[in-house]
């Protein structure tokens, strides 16, 4: 089995489903560029059939992003899949992600379909998608609460139709780590052609266990793709946090034995960019990206860290993109230091003209204020970087 863990980012699709987090096309494109710098393997850019806006956003991302696979979600029907394929046309590498619910509750109450109808529709959808794209992901929505016998039947059929990734969502965040890990393991053992697909985990955080469940799906279940979002953004209590999964796998490589292709120094800039764009504040004690994640306040800890960092630090702040050299910006600071801080804060201004204008405002402020904090810079550039 591969020792590479695929990082599938769904900030722009499942993350955006969070009430109040919707983003414009330009905002999505800016975040997609940051995700590419972060070197995520797959960017789920949106749900092309859901609106013209989402279609245009997926299309723009598909034509600009070269290093990550660009994916669109589609319900298991020809229209959605056709729209996804159309939006993805310009992509260097594309994926269609199609889904249909398989739990009794969802089939009966939401879809009003029988098991056989869902089974047929899943098969036909993957067959249709496979004719349009070589990289097809299939998700049985509410998979974790589905009857295992029926689920195995559906998954075997969609793999036979050409699905290359099988994603098992815990749509409502009901799983606990050991059970979810064993569920993935059971599916991989029981589906006869399971080795023809890469298995993926997709967890929601309703009980605060999305990251733990995803990691159990990897460790116990043998999944090799994790679906996640920056800052754990997502509906209700959110999705699995990308930064936590990546740093867990890297920091505990002794336990997981896996590699991730992520450039971790881009994690904090990505977190800031998503937070500024959506207005969703990152809690200070959030692992990896919270303002206090690397702050040592108690005397004993400060003393220990000054003597040897490993005493209280299991990761390096600078490895995840916190600026190592705490250059204090003030009235003597130059344009380069200002530009560098913008980059560390995940702020991307589009033209030199915008940078010059922001720098001029910075200089004005620095004349009135001895030290310029990150919050001041965020306020200075918010017009250009966020509200566009
Ligand atoms: O949570 C979920 O079930 C989903 C699927 C559409 C993959 O987001
Ligand atoms: Zn989801």
UniProtKB/TrEMBL annotation:
Protein name: 2-isopropylmalate synthase
Keyword Transcription regulation: no
Lineage: Bacteria, Pseudomonadati, Pseudomonadota, Betaproteobacteria, Burkholderiales
Gene responsible for this protein: leuA
Family assignment from sequence similarity: Belongs to the alpha-IPM synthase/homocitrate synthase family. LeuA type 1 subfamily.
Superkingdom assignment: Bacteria
EC number: 2.3.3.13
Catalytic reaction annotation: 3-methyl-2-oxobutanoate + acetyl-CoA + H2O = (2S)-2-isopropylmalate + CoA + H(+)
Taxonomic source organism: Pseudaquabacterium inlustre
Function: Catalyzes the condensation of the acetyl group of acetyl-CoA with 3-methyl-2-oxobutanoate (2-ketoisovalerate) to form 3-carboxy-3-hydroxy-4-methylpentanoate (2-isopropylmalate).
Amino-acid positions noted as binding Mn(2+) in the UniProt annotation, renumbered to this chain: 14, 202, 204, 239
Subunit structure, interactors included: Homodimer.
Pyruvate carboxyltransferase domain residues: 5-268
Keywords: Acyltransferase, Amino-acid biosynthesis, Branched-chain amino acid biosynthesis, Cytoplasm, Leucine biosynthesis, Manganese, Metal-binding, Transferase
Pathway the protein acts in: Amino-acid biosynthesis; L-leucine biosynthesis; L-leucine from 3-methyl-2-oxobutanoate: step 1/4
Cofactor(s) of this protein: Mn(2+)
GO molecular function: 2-isopropylmalate synthase activity
């Amino acid at each position: 089995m591969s020792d590479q863990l695929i990082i599938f980012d769904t900030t722009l699709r499942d993350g955006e489903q969070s009430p109040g987090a919707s983003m414009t096309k330009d905002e999505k494109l800016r975040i997609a560029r940051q995700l590419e710098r972060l070197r995520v393997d797959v960017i789920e850019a949106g749900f092309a059939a859901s609106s013209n806006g989402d279609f245009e956003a997926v299309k723009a991302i598909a034509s600009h992003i070269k290093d990550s696979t660009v994916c669109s979600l589609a319900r298991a029907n020809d229209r959605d899949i056709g729209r996804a394929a159309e939006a993805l046309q310009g992509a260097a590498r594309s994926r269609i992600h199609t889904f249909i619910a398989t739990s009794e509750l969802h089939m009966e109450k939401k879809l009003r379909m029988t098991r056989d109808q869902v089974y047929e529709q899943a098969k036909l959808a993957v067959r249709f998608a496979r004719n349009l794209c070589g990289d097809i992901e299939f998700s049985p929505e509410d998979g974790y609460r589905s009857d295992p016998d029926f689920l195995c039947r559906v998954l075997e059929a969609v793999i036979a139709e050409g699905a290359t990734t099988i994603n098992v969502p815990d749509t409502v965040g009901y799983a606990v780590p050991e059970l979810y890990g064993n569920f993935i393991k059971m599916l991989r053992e029981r589906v006869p052609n399971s080795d023809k697909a890469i298995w993926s985990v997709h967890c929601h955080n309703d009980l605060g266990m999305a990251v733990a469940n995803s990691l159990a799906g990897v460790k116990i279940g043998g999944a090799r793709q994790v679906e996640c979002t920056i800052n754990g953004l997502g509906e209700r209590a959110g999705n699995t946090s990308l930064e936590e999964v990546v740093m867990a796998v890297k920091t505990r490589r002794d336990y997981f034995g896996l590699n991730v292709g992520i450039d971790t120094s881009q994690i904090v800039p990505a977190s800031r960019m998503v937070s500024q764009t959506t207005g969703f504040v990152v809690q200070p004690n959030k692992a990896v990206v919270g303002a206090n994640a690397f702050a040592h306040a108690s005397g004993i800890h400060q003393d220990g860290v000054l003597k040897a960092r490993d005493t209280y630090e299991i990761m390096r702040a600078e490895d995840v993109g916190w600026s190592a050299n705490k250059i204090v910006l003030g009235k003597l600071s130059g344009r380069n230091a200002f530009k560098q801080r913008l980059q560390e804060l995940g702020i991307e201004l589009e033209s030199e003209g915008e940078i010059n204008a922001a720098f001029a405002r910075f200089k004005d402020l620095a004349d009135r204020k001895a030290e310029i904090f990150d919050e001041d810079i965020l306020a200075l550039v918010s017009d250009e970087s966020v509200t566009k």
